Amino acid sequence: xxxxxxxxxxxxxxxxxxxxxxxxxxxxxxxxxxxxxxxxxxxxxxxxxxxxxxxxxxxxxxxxxxxxxxxxxxxxxxxxxxxxxxxxxxxxxxxxxxxxxxxxxxxxxxxxxxxxxxxxxxxxxxxxxxxxxxxxxxxxxxxxxxxxxxxxxxxxxxxxxxxxxxxxxxxxxxxxxxxxxxxxxxxxxxxxxxxxxxxxxxxxxxxxxxxxxxxxxxxxxxxxxxxxxxxxxxxxxxxxxxxxxxxxxxxxxxxxxxxxxxxxxxxxxxxxxxxxxxxxxxxxxxxxxxxxxxxxxxxxxxxxxxxxxxxxxxxxxxxxxxxxxxxxxxxxxxxxxxxxxxxxxxxxxxxxxxxxxxxxxxxxxxxxxxxxxxxxxxxxxxxxxxxxxxxxxxxxxxxxxxxxxxxxxxxxxxxxxxxxxxxxxxxxxxxxxxxxxxxxxxxxxxxxxxxxxxxxxxxxxxxxxxxxxxxxxxxxxxxxxxxxxxxxxxxxxxxxxxxxxxxxxxxxxxxxxxxxxxxxxxxxxxxxxxxxxxxxxxxxxxxxxxxxxxxxxxxxxxxxxxxxxxxxxxxxx
Length: 573
Ligand code: HEM
Ligand SMILES: *[C@@H]1O[C@H](CO)[C@@H](O)[C@H](O)[C@H]1NC(C)=O
Hints:
The structure is a single chain. By secondary structure, the protein is α+β, with helices and mostly antiparallel strands. It has a domain at 38-125 and 397-429: 2-Layer Sandwich (Uridine Diphospho-n-acetylenolpyruvylglucosamine Reductase, domain 2), CATH 3.30.43. It has 26 helices and 13 strands. It has helices at residues 2-7, 16-36, 55-63, 65-74, 97-105, 116-124, 128-135, 148-160, 164-194, 202-219, 224-227, 231-240, 242-247, 251-254, 256-274, 277-281, 284-295, 300-330, 333-346, 350-354, 372-377, 380-393, 424-427, 431-434, 444-448, 502-519, and strands at 81-86, 89-94, 110-111, 199-201, 348-349, 368-371, 397-402, 406-408, 412-414, 419-423, 520-524, 552-557, 569-572. A hairpin with a 3-residue loop joins strand 8 and strand 9 (412-414). It starts with a helix and ends with a strand.
């Protein structure tokens, strides 16, 4: 100690190391002070980062979506919105359904579209000229010129909204899924007899079936993945590196496989478009998307990248939610039996429908008829399982940029150019909304509440983003006063960014699940109970979260039900 004081100068009595510590602490508190300062007294409460200035960014980079989610859960009782200061900007995190609805309503000041060009440039690798086109008129007022984004969004929402085209596409999807699953069923029959049952990763199994069939009903039998099955692996490489592509720090290193996968798919989709296969055998919605892009001056290579994003939207969330639904059903034999009974009760024999009973003099087996609407309307437990899996699996963030200074709900000041995020993961984990068992899988909560509004449907002005009310028969029955808050179920987003594919997704997922549970049994590869792992929330939640570890199962043809000798089913709406 004595030696230290001797080296210190006369007027400064402290040692060099003490000085460094004091300076460090001073800088820390100064930075902390800057980090925790409000820009306006009405700004939402500021949560200062543990490491001044960059702490929140560091947390997000290291912990993925879990970082903000855990902050939100920790402060849930006290704060319904808070400010995360980040260098040069702010992120406002909303963790309460009523405020989420206020964000959704304030769509003039708070919009997602201004950041879409930048995001799609990173994720899809769009060229500069195309990005310039997408920047134009992203949020037109009525009567103003409309850019590419609002044009394509409105078309997709209209085509996938309740109506003729939704039925057509849902029936196409059902037919493709039936074919893929039937092909699998015959292969199972072959393997079980010759080599004994094989072990399958449940997620990979669902992925393969959904990827192949989605590519077919959207892009036709000559789609890139049908022509080159190796592209299926490229697709999932792209998916798993999407977070790194988004962060865009040295993507060629941090997202090498995703980048390579994307480039292969973009090239194959370009070849597909240039051969005119979308026009000869693609779905109507894909043809129209391509037309709109061309009308706005897009070049074909950019259109190919844009279609990769549509294929992505069609596959990834449907896959992961189907996986969780099947897993929870097969992990609980009682629940599986209930759901099977529900589905079997809506399967009818075709002859019931349009042929008089007398004509059954020559009894030959008729295909069964499955109405997709019956799965939605008459299978309440199945639908509750669907909703509960989406609630548990989605930590989605609905993102908006603040276009002008705004007073949210007449109370919270939001600064121009800052980011607002509705934290679905926090809202989905709120025991005040969902009950004390919020973190367990409990489909019953949706039955008790008859929560038809939970697909973020727009009965109340709170979550419709200005959409027109749906025709009566398309609304699920709503029991007034006995439902969750309409903005509490976030799996499909909400307001202007409510998923346009939600009706279609529900149709195809329920059909897929019905086809599987009618035809197959599953056993765990090891042990005697199928294990339900937790979700991996340490990634950027670009889609419904995957499990932390794979689930290995043995799939066999069902030996009890009437589908024993093969399921011959036709679909109707
Ligand atoms: C369970 C399955 C699905 C879930 C949970 C889901 C969820 C979502 C969410 C949360 C968004 C908004 C993203 C945001 O706020 O940034 C979104 C957007 C979108 N979804 Fe879905 N989705 C599903 C299935 C589908 C399907 C099957 C399709 C198409 C066939 C589809 C088409 C789209 C499109 C095109 C967008 C972008 C809309 C836009 O840019 O305005 N989705 N989806
Ligand atoms: C998929 O769903 C998640 C969770 O609900 C959401 O965050 C994401 O934006 C969706 N992605 C697509 C491509 O639809």
